[in-house]
Inverse folding.
């Protein structure tokens, strides 16, 4: 069973930006969208493993910095017409603190 | 309860409108569609390839039944609407079904025009309009031998070609003396006829059909005599013959808007159902799109205008109420395999027009441009149609061609694009030929995607195949493939292109609004210009961030989250997620201690690779992101600032040795290069911006392919602008010659500022200079001294803010969150 892990205060993640959390087998990109929701996906684009954390966030999507694939932050899936999916993690914000279920 | 929308006519225009509507307002309506044909929406312009056996019907279906279902649309096929009851707002179908509507969309299309001569209703006389006609032709070809196609226009020739492929002996009967007279002039039509005759097609020109012969099935045609009692047939046939045998007659003499239903319902119609610029009929609840429509006196039968109309109608059905349809200019391509032909605009010259012609009978090639006031009015091409899309774009945008008029007929590619050489004849390429060298996309991949996915626009093709989506140099080739695959009137670039999908506004609109309405932050732009997304997208945000910064350098707060990662991390992201670092070396000059410092940094941070760049700087590859701030600190301590090699910014000033050392040097080119770099470093630009200073006309610094280049001569300095050594090599234009270094700096600052203020984001100086014209730039910089000085002053104001070294700031802790990973704490 996975646990909630405390990550950082919400204000440490820039709005429409992201931070990287390193875990044993790779990195997780934690995004804060314009409406102050938080999403977490594996920091690798399904296309060529580009670091999604470095992309531009708009709405609930991020654009990969390498080849402009757009990834839905809720599902981890590439938007049409591209096809592919990256892992997602459950994230929540409680009393201004960001948690991930790992 | 949702409002009800009924679409009458299940064809391309109507369904496209639904697609656009679903994009804008998916939940607005309960939608019901009635179609007369028993099929879901198919690609009518692909009927010719179906007839020619190159495609099956399944392959040309655009929206299968599943699509209607998954979008919650009720579809009734094979059941035409026979009555519109406007008072009770309901439609009645042939099967007796009654459906009420709140909004009605008419897209009834058109009917083939059947010449009203005796016998025209005999079995064996058909049009060429739908799948049933194609079935009839294929069936006829199994038993009959001789086919006659009446009409030597686009549709008629495609029908004739298809019948010929099906094994019939085909004669095309045409009223005029030239084929496709609405699209071609005499020489091009003659070449077309010759090519088709070589394929085995026969022609009867200037022949007017008087009667279709036969009793229970067509057996032939009889032609009218002229006033002197002679058979009015001159071309291709012995005098005196006035009849011809036929087992099948295809009438392809034109189409008529299908407006019976609308007329019966009392809607105002002239040649078609009359609509205004919002695609609304005289009944405000009823909209109409497609071939049934008459707009500003015009009826359209090509697909591009229909799609533009669809967009507008959808916008109003979605109650957004901002789009207007203002008519279309169309272009044509004939879909007969092996024949390349293109026409657009008004191609028959009138008084005051000039005609440019390039003709080579041996290569079976003909190009004609009709020009008025240095703007293209029309184009006809046969044989080599590669540049058709380019000419069409120049025509639509009303571009002044005076600067390249002398070479325009040789095409856009007379200067050779990187990666394509002179390979311009798309039709001649095999299907495994690589079109997009960046993404490895072949001609076959593109054609396959266009056909199986039903693509019509360049953006569609880019999204699905990635062809031309990277460097863009193959855009012309991709457009040519698109137009030859889709055929007549694929959707060409609109002359006013929106910044992105978040808005209807163009770059120029945005630039103007930011200045005139003093919009000084991004939320103000979004709300003032009614952006349709809450926080833009990865395309518009960097553009807006630049425009705001360029216009309000002292007021606007740069938004890091609206910058591409390279400009946020101040390094160039590499494919493995590491960064490259280029320290600035003004004018390319360096000292032993500079080099030692760089070498020490490379040792300390284990930089895996170093390289000398084309711009005379040193590039350090493979730096981990978290190492960037400490590495920058070491470089900063050694006196370096950021080289901005990662940004849409002033990059480098390349210099040659100059007169300090070189025996040919006329001026101090390195010294001037350093001064120019000190003036311009740190400046954000619409795109990257490179300079060079050469000490003499031997031009070792290659100044004539830079955005701003200086070539020193004994008597002063030549200033060159708008060069590019990238995808498309472009040699600079000479702006002027000046006498002193001070003037070089002033002119450089003024030119740079003008580019910063006027160019679109991501537009290099080369296309910008071509777009606005050299004359426009000279007017403001050469002829108007006050204007030049004002531009230079504004540039210097911006530089006060811009010349803060981003590396030093980050080495001291700015934006630390960008570089540090988060730790899991519990």
């Amino acid at each position: 069973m996975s646990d909630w892990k405390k990550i950082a205060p919400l204000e440490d993640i820039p709005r429409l930006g992201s931070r990287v959390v390193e875990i044993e087998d790779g990195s997780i990109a934690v995004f804060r969208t314009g409406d102050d929701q938080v999403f977490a996906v594996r920091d690798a684009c399904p296309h060529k493993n580009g670091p999604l954390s470095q992309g531009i966030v708009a709405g609930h999507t991020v654009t990969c910095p390498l080849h402009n694939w757009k990834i839905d932050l809720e599902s981890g899936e590439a938007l049409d017409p591209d096809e592919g999916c990256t892992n997602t993690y459950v994230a929540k914000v409680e009393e201004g603190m960001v948690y991930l279920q790992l | 309860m949702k409002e009800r929308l009924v679409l009458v006519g299940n064809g391309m225009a109507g369904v496209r409108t639904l697609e656009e509507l679903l994009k804008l307002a998916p939940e607005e309506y309960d939608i019901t569609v009635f179609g007369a044909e028993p099929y879901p929406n198919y690609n009518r312009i692909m009927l010719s390839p179906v007839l020619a056996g190159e495609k099956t019907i399944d392959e040309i279906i655009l929206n299968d039944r599943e699509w209607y279902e998954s979008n919650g649309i009720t579809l009734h096929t094979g059941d035409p609407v026979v009555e519109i009851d406007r008072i009770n707002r309901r439609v009645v179908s042939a099967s007796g079904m009654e459906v009420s509507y709140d909004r009605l969309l008419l897209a009834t299309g058109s009917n083939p025009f059947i010449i009203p001569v005796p016998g025209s209703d005999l079995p064996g006389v058909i049009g060429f309009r739908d799948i049933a006609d194609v079935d009839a032709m294929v069936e006829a070809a199994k038993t009959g031998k001789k086919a006659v196609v009446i009409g030597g226009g686009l549709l008629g020739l495609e029908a004739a070609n298809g019948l010929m492929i099906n094994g019939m002996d085909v004669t095309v009967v045409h009223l005029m003396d030239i084929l496709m007279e609405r699209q071609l002039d005499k020489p091009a039509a003659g070449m077309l006829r010759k090519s088709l005759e070589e394929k085995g097609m026969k022609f009867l020109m200037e022949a007017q059909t008087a009667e279709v012969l036969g009793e229970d099935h067509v057996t032939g045609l009889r032609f009218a005599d002229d006033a002197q009692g002679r058979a009015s047939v001159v071309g291709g046939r012995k005098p005196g013959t006035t009849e011809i045998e036929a087992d099948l007659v295809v009438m392809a003499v034109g189409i008529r808007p299908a407006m019976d239903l609308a007329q019966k319902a009392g809607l105002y119609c002239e040649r078609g159902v009359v609509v205004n610029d919002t695609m609304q009929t005289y009944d405000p609840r009823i909209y109409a799109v497609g071939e049934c429509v008459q707009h500003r006196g015009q009826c359209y039968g090509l697909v591009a205008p229909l799609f533009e109309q669809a967009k507008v109608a959808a916008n109003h059905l979605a109650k957004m109420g901002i789009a207007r349809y203002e008519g279309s200019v169309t272009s044509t391509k004939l879909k007969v395999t092996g024949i390349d032909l293109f026409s657009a605009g008004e191609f028959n010259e009138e008084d005051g027009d000039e005609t440019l012609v390039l003709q080579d009978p041996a290569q079976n090639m003909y190009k004609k441009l009709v020009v008025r006031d240095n703007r293209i009015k029309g184009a006809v091409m046969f044989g080599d149609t590669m540049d058709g899309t380019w000419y069409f774009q120049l025509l639509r945008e009303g571009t002044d061609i005076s600067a390249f008029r002398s070479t325009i007929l040789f095409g856009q590619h007379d200067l050779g694009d990187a990666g394509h050489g002179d390979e311009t004849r798309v039709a001649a390429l095999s299907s495994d030929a690589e079109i997009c060298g960046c993404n490895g996309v072949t001609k076959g991949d593109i054609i396959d995607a266009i056909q199986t996915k039903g693509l019509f626009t360049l953006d569609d093709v880019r999204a699905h195949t990635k062809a031309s989506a990277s460097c863009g140099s193959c855009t012309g080739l991709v457009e040519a493939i698109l137009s030859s695959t889709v055929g007549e009137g694929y959707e060409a670039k609109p002359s006013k292109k929106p910044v992105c999908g978040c808005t209807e506004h163009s770059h120029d609109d945005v630039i103007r609004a930011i200045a005139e309405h003093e919009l000084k932050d991004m939320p103000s732009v979004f709300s003032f210009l009614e952006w349709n997304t809450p926080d833009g997208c990865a395309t518009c945000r960097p553009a807006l961030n630049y425009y705001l910064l360029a216009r309000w350098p002292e007021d606007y707060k740069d938004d890091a989250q609206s910058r591409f990662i390279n400009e946020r991390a101040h390094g160039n992201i590499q494919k493995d997620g590491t960064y490259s670092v280029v320290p600035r070396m003004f004018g390319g000059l360096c000292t032993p201690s500079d080099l030692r410092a760089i070498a020490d940094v490379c040792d300390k941070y284990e930089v895996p690779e170093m390289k000398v760049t084309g711009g005379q700087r040193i590039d350090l590859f493979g730096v981990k992101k978290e190492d960037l701030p400490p590495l920058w600190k070491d470089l900063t301590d050694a006196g370096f600032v950021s080289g901005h090699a990662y940004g849409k910014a002033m990059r480098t000033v390349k210099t040659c040795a100059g007169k300090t050392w070189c025996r040919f040097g006329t001026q101090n080119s390195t010294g001037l290069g350093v001064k120019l770099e000190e003036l311009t470093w740190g400046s954000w630009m619409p795109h990257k911006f490179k300079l060079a200073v050469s000490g003499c006309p031997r031009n070792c610094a290659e100044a004539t392919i830079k955005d701003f280049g200086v070539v020193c001569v004994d008597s002063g300095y030549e200033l060159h602008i708008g060069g590019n050594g990238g995808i498309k090599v472009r040699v600079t234009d000479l702006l002027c010659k000046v006498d002193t270094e001070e003037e070089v700096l002033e002119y450089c600052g003024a030119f740079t500022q003008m580019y910063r203020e006027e160019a679109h984001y991501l537009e290099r100086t080369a296309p910008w200079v071509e777009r606005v014209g050299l004359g426009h730039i000279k007017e403001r910089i050469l002829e108007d001294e006050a204007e030049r000085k004002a531009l230079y002053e504004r540039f210097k104001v911006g530089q006060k803010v811009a010349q803060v070294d981003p590396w030093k700031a980050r080495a001291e802790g700015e934006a630390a969150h960008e570089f540090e990973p988060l730790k899991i704490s519990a």
Chain A touches chain B at residues 5-8, 12-17, 19-23, 27, 30, 34-35, 48-51, 54-59, 63, 65-68, 70, 80-81, 100, 102 (CB under 8 Å). Chain A has no helices and nine strands.
